[in-house]
């Protein structure tokens, strides 16, 4: 277990810091890189995982977290993403509770704090992986203090981490990495007394397995720590080569060596790790319920390639892209799907050399890891490759199809292996070229400055959706989703003219992009360009017949075009594909009003309020329709029922006050009007209708006052003007008759 002093470490041009100072330094570097994201908004996936996720609301039962996926959908649902991360969602709920609502600052600060903590703990992890595990009087020695610090700084400042730190949903990767580290460090603690079976503290191994389970409850990638622990056990603690181990186990030509493995307990520990991994995978599979998630060709086009050769080639090209992002993290994008990475369809594609270069480099590293005469080099390279590759395995498409092409946040853990290998390479260079220490120091400082600057720039881009989406246009100009998100952001900010341009480009790049068609159709509908809107929405539902939102929007357009039968059918199609669709019932009710089918309209709006009890528009329309058709008593009942659920809704108060006024319940009507005006004091119609109430009631001076307030707010209201003139004539007549 003892390791000699690593001779190349002292050549690294960094100060030799005490462990506490080194960890504080790493935490501060991490803080410096990402601090400007602390006041960012909720962006991109945060909308679904946080803003629209009811599991964060303290009013939602806590048990729901354990039965729902990361996005708040029930795991048994066919629409579930199957990403089971209850501990991560629990921390989101904690942020919500502490802030008293959805305030992004607290979420961002916790993410930055987690990355700083992980960066600090990386010092311990790198010191073990690079320098070995040596205990003196149960105190661990660090043989590579400078290399550990260098690898930790590279990790803390690597720009590939921006998505995980600045994007709040990256919390899953951060928590997974934290428990991953704790599991590894706890596993190492088991050997403080030595590697003999009787000296190994089995309780620390049990704690390590529990921490692995916690990592997996934060993100599925957490299970890979078992592979890292096993490799570390074999390669460092028991001081054997992988091929030597397989030779001893399976060829069994060295009985003494096999007995040595049994004596140290290695085989028992490997069996325990394997059994634990199998149990966790089985449990995870059972939790998924209906099987793995169903991804589409848009999510991961290479996995749908019919030609196996081309599928393998494209997978390997994806690996080379991930490697390039680690080497040169300048071209970063929030999404790499939908044409951002065109498929390789020929062996003569210009990108094929990148695959050869990747594998040439990896084979060279593997050769050194196996065949080098330097045992310390063999261990370092092997463990670096293990830490680089093993956490990436769940994202490699080998074991199951994943729902992305390239995702920067899945490299959070793998980047630790890259930083370890890079620190080792830089240390060897400093040792070999010690005469050029000044130049090497300058180059190292320049690299770190570039990393910090890039982190700062990228963190700033992640502060808002506008800057995040527009930054991707130069990186992935062929990505239809990038253009779609830019258009959606523009539309949300009211710039529909510019949004149309980006939606059209998204549809041009991806002609079957139904969501872009739906949003573009909605904008055209609002601009009264109904014919083109109908064509787009009809095309969207033809491509995806179960697209309920597009069916509903198509019904709205057809209703506006007075194609009533087609509109009704479209609404029912939407309801057929989405059973609980209150907005569709609401729009169906509006159609029935246009057709004078008042009972059907009331039934449709009642269905809307049953599915969504706080559907204000449906409640209000029921009251207005019953009022207009003379069913005042029923209108009063519906209005009072609505206000029990929505006691601060001024529109319902206004409609109910009108009904009560017609029923000559003047005092109660007055109360609702005044309450509505306290909520919305600048409502011309509310002042006007209150004036009508006072007019009927005989309180003419008050009627005059509110008519004048109404006309001041809306001088063009002809009905109010006529009523005011009528009141004025009546007042003049009264003044004349009462004059002496």
Automatic annotation (TrEMBL):
How is this protein positioned relative to the membrane? Multi-pass membrane protein
- For this protein, what is the EC number? 2.4.1.109
* GO molecular function annotation: dolichyl-phosphate-mannose-protein mannosyltransferase activity
The main location is endoplasmic reticulum
Q: Which UniProt keywords apply?
A: Endoplasmic reticulum, Membrane, Repeat, TPR repeat, Transferase, Transmembrane, Transmembrane helix
Its GO CC terms? Answer: endoplasmic reticulum; membrane
Task: Cite the repeat ranges for TPR.
Answer: 480-513, 514-547, 548-581, 582-615, 650-683, 684-717
Q: Which Pfam families match?
A: TMTC_DUF1736, TPR_12, TPR_16, TPR_19
Is Ubl conjugation included in the keywords of this UniProt record?
A: no
Pathway linked to the protein? Protein modification; protein glycosylation
The residues covered by the DUF1736 domain are 291-363
Write down the superkingdom of origin.
Eukaryota
Q: What is this protein called?
A: dolichyl-phosphate-mannose--protein mannosyltransferase
Against PANTHER family, the record matches this protein to: PROTEIN O-MANNOSYL-TRANSFERASE TMTC4, PTHR44227
For this chain, the family text in UniProt reads: Belongs to the TMTC family.
TM stretches of this protein: 112-136, 200-217, 223-243, 315-332, 352-371, 383-404, 410-431, 438-454
Enzyme class, broadest EC rank: transferase
User: What phylogenetic lineage does the species belong to?
Assistant: Eukaryota, Metazoa, Chordata, Craniata, Vertebrata
- Please state the gene responsible for encoding this protein: TMTC4
Question: Cellular location of this protein?
Answer: Endoplasmic reticulum; Membrane
Biological process, per Gene Ontology: endoplasmic reticulum unfolded protein response
């Amino acid at each position: 277990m003892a390791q000699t002093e690593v001779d190349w470490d002292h050549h690294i041009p960094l100060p030799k810091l005490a462990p506490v100072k080194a960890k504080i330094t790493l935490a501060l570097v991490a803080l410096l890189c990402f601090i400007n994201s602390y006041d960012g908004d909720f962006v991109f996936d945060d909308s679904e995982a946080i803003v629209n996720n009811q599991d964060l609301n303290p009013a939602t039962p806590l048990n729901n977290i354990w039965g729902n996926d990361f996005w708040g959908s029930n795991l048994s649902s066919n629409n579930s993403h199957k990403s089971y991360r209850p501990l991560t969602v629990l921390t989101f709920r904690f942020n919500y509770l502490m802030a008293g609502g959805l305030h992004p600052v607290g979420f961002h600060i916790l993410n930055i704090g987690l990355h700083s903590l992980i960066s600090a703990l990386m010092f311990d992890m790198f010191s073990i992986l690079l320098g070995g595990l040596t205990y003196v009087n149960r105190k661990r020695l660090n043989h590579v203090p400078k290399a550990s610090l260098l690898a930790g700084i590279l990790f803390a400042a690597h720009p590939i981490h921006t998505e995980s730190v600045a994007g709040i949903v990256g919390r899953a990767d951060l928590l997974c990495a934290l428990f991953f580290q704790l599991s590894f460090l706890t596993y190492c603690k088991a050997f403080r007394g030595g590697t003999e079976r009787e000296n190994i503290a089995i309780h620390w191994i049990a704690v390590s397995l529990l921490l692995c389970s916690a990592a997996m409850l934060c993100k599925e990638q957490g299970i890979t720590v078992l592979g890292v622990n096993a490799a570390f056990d074999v390669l460092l603690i028991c001081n054997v080569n992988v091929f030597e181990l397989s030779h001893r186990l399976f060829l069994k030509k060295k009985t003494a060596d096999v007995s040595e493995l049994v004596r140290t307990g290695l085989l028992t520990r490997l069996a325990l790790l394997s059994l634990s991994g199998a149990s966790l995978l089985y449990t995870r599979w059972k939790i998924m319920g209906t099987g793995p998630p169903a991804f589409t060709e848009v999510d991961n086009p290479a996995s749908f390639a019919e030609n196996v050769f081309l599928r393998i080639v494209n997978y390997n090209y994806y690996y080379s892209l991930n490697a390039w992002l680690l080497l040169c993290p300048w071209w970063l994008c929030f999404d790499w799907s939908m044409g951002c990475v065109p498929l390789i369809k020929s062996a003569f594609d210009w990108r094929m050399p990148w695959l050869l270069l990747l594998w040439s480099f990896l084979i060279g590293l593997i050769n050194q890891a196996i065949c080098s005469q330097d045992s310390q080099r063999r261990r370092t390279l092997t463990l670096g490759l293990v830490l680089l590759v093993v956490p990436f395995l769940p994202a490699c498409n080998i074991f199951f199809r994943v729902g992305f092409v390239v995702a920067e946040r899945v490299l959070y853990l793998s980047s630790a292996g890259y930083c370890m290998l890079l620190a080792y390479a830089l240390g060897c260079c400093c040792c070999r070229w010690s005469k050029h220490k000044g130049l090497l120091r300058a180059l190292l400082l320049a690299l770190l400055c570039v990393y910090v600057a890039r982190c700062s720039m990228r963190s700033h881009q992640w502060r808002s959706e506008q800057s995040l989406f527009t930054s991707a246009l130069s990186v992935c100009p062929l990505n239809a989703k990038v253009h779609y998100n830019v258009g959606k952001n523009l539309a949300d900010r009211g710039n529909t003219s510019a949004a149309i341009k980006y939606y059209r480009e998204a549809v041009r790049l991806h002609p079957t992009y139904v969501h872009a068609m739906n949003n573009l159709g909605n904008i055209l509908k609002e601009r009264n360009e109904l014919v083109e809107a109908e064509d787009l929405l009809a095309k969207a539902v033809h491509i995806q017949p179960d697209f309920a939102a597009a069916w509903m929007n198509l019904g709205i357009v057809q209703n506006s075009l007075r194609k009533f039968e087609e509109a009704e059918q479209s609404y029912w199609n939407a309801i057929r594909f989405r059973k609980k669709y209150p907005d569709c019932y609401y729009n169906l009710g509006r159609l029935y009003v246009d057709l004078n089918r008042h009972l059907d309209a009331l039934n449709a709006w009642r269905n809307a309020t049953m599915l969504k009890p706080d559907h204000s528009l449906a409640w209000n329309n029921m009251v207005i329709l019953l009022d207009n058709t003379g069913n005042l008593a029923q209108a009063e009942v519906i209005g009072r029922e609505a206000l029990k659920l929505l006691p601060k809704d001024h529109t319902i108060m206004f409609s109910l006050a009108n009904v009560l006024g017609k029923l000559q319940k003047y005092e109660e009507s007055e109360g609702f009007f005044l309450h509505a005006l306290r909520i919305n004091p600048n409502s011309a119609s509310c002042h006007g209708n209150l004036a009508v109430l006072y007019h009927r009631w005989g309180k003419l001076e008050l009627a005059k006052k509110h008519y004048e307030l109404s006309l001041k707010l809306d001088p063009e209201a002809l009905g109010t003007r006529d009523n005011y003139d009528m009141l004025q004539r009546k007042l003049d007549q009264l003044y004349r008759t009462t004059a002496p």
